[in-house]
Design brief:
The complex is a heterodimer of chains A (387) and B (319).
Chain A lengths: L2 E3 L1 H12 L3 E3 L8 H11 L6 E3 L4 H14 L3 E6 H16 L5 E6 L13 H5 L6 E4 L3 H16 L7 E6 L8 E3 L4 H8 L16 E2 L8 H13 L1 H16 L7 E4 L6 E5 L3 H14 L4 E6 L1 E3 L3 H8 L4 E6 L9 H10 L7 E6 L9 H10 L9 E3 L5
Parallel strand pairs in A: 2-3, 2-4, 4-5, 5-7, 6-7, 11-12, 11-14, 14-15, 15-16
Antiparallel strand pairs in A: 1-8, 6-13, 10-12
Chain B lengths: L3 H10 L15 H10 L5 E5 L3 H6 L11 E3 L5 H18 L7 E7 H6 L2 H10 L3 E7 L39 H6 L5 E6 L3 H11 L5 E7 L3 H4 L6 H10 L6 E4 L2 E4 L10 H4 L14 H25 L9
Helix pairs in contact in B: 2-8, 4-6
The chains are: A alpha/beta (387), B alpha/beta (319).
Chain lengths: 387, 319
Amino acid sequence: MRKVMTGHKAVAEAMRQIEPDVVAVYPITPQSEIAEYYADYVHDGIVHTELVPVESEHSAMSACVGAAAAGARVMTATSSQGLALLVEVLYIAAGMRLPIVMALANRSLSAPINIHCDHSDAYLARDAGAFQVFCESAQEVYDYTLIAQRIAEHDKIRLPGIVNLDGFSLTHTSQVVEPLEDAVAKKFVGVFKPVHPLLDVDKPVTWGPFAMPDYYFELKRAQQAAIEEVPTVFLDVQKAFAKTSGRAYAGFVEKYRLDDADRALVVLGSTAGTAKIAVDALRSKGEKVGLLKVWLYRPFPYQAVASALERVKHVAVLDRAISFGAMGALYSDVATSLVRSQVRPALHNYIYGLGGRDITAEQLAEVLVGLEKVHPDEVLRYIGLRE
Amino acid sequence: MPNIKTLAQREEKEVRFTPGHTLCAGCAEPMVVRTVLNAIEEPVVAASPTGCLEVATSRFPGTAWNVPWIHVAFENAGAVISGVEAAYKALTKTGAVAKRIRFVVFGGDGGTYDIGLQALSGALERGHDFLYVCVNNEAYMNTGVQRSSATPRCASATTSPVGDAIPGKPQDRKDLTQIVVGHHVPYVGQAAVSNLIDLANKVERAMKYDGPKFLNVLTTCPLGWRTPRDSAIVQAKLAVETRYWPLYEVIEGKYKINYKPKAHVPVEEWLKTQGRFRHLFRDPKGKERIAEFQAAVDRHWNDLLRKEQCLSGGEAGQG
């Protein structure tokens, strides 16, 4: 049944259906309604979940790690400064191979304190060892929360996963979402089977040991092997989800009118929706433009990005955060993807939308129209900035 | 109440904390851990923040823990055990876990008084069912004897050294036991490694309660205190006899001092045996500082006596 809901509510709905054993969450820094929605479910007795209303995001992820190691299915949600505070423990969750799925309402990092959308928080968690998915719409937020849960808990993966949803443009904006029936969603996600749980007291295990130079390197290499399995599992789970839902997600990226394009944008998140409007408008004028939207951000789908872009002549990669002193993080990944291609586009890097600065279809169309005249000289350009 | 024989029998039946760890010679921590684990009859899941105990007992691929045990980071043991206990509650509801399991944290003073205080306070306030044991050796011993907020005044530590301008730690230690009392949890106690039966009894009394329980256990560190390696018990005993470290408990808000030394032993007797206070006996101003130290000990002891008198539940003066 189709329902109108915000991105926050879409996450909460998926979480209600997944029904984790433990949700440890801190609702603020900045405020997210996910904790409030979930508290309603718990206090109304419609889920069996133990809610741990912790005193900080650091403790939220710490309690998630404790609960997951104990043998529970665990979820949480965070945003911005909260992510920055908990990121220490996110690295640990990945190192301990704990399947904790976390919604990340993408909002700017301080200073100055802001609360509106950009991707500086997601980029901060980039190397933590969690897989990351970016969503364009509330529907994708709902769908990818279910998908992420199944990937995270897959026996080859067992890693934390982040479902990114843009602050305000997705979190607080009402859209039409078609959730699965509860029973269908539960069946899709399946039953969680813990590995070496702490609560199996007859088989005592030591979680979180101290590893010196004689073992640390091998253990981190094993962790890399686990995240390298994500793409295969991602495609399988997408396929299973398409079968269940009828929504045909396929691949790590979405190619929009890209096949014959000579110019293209590469974006993450809700800006893809705005970019589609810009592409359609230019296409109607006969311009050969397209869009590449990246769903799976970590592990980064280098080959898929290369094969989607290598025949395009000019590509503008849009980063919604500055990697201070360097080119944008997404640009760097796209450039790495193309480095082995015999034929490759001229690459351009644009920074946009920091701290919730609006991005319009007109601005994106302007980038595409002027793209072949821009010299590709590894210089950052800015959209919608007063200089 | 358990006696040495019962504790030994329990350990014979099930060794919960095994030899072969790399704690220093003369370290008192294993005695605390073994006594606490042996004093609990039910299965235990334990957690530790980063610290001496964690590093020395869990070097991959070995482990000294024969109970399920988890370490996550330095500042979050309170939150980690909250998650473990919440998982236990949830999985008991679903029927996935059937046994009665108890939860214990062993944290050093750095991970408890300082960087872990917020997570501990949150866990106490939320009322999780667990016992937190602070294995308190009064400084960051694992990393080279840096001062913590549990370090006593005047003590020399590597971040409060005895310099020409500032002789050791200028500040008094924090009274964490009282901070925990302020959380109105069912059981709070202070113990010392010199009084192991008292410690075991406290654990047994504490574990009768659901909800958060806290024990602050003075645990000698020969390395950091600069005392002989065979003196851990003597050192802790002197701390108790001089009233520097009172053995007491606060059960459901009621105070009980478990041991009242008959003779007044000056705290100087304790200070003079430790290298970290040696400067007090060389510096011309040392006498004055020792007098101030003694005044602080007396003040805290008298405060405690008054609390026992006022908040004893009718059992004042029985020690």
